[in-house]
Amino acid sequence: MALSAAYFAWRGWPFSPLLGTEVFGFFLMDFQFISLGYVAWRLGRERGAFARLALSREGVAGLLPFLRIVAPAYAAQALYANWLAVVPLVNPRLYDRLFLAPEQWVFGASMTRWMSLPNDPALTLLIDVCYLLFFTWIALTMVILFVGDGERAARRFVVALVLSTVVSTAILVALPTLGPAFLDPESVAPIRDAMLRTDHFQGVSRAFRAEVLANPAGFALVPFLGVSAFPSMHVGHTFLALTFLWPKQRVAFKLFLLPVLGAWVGTVYLGWHYALDGLAGIGIAMGARWLAGRCLPYDPDDQGSTAISNRPKS
Question: What does pTM read for this prediction?
Answer without folding.
Answer: 0.82
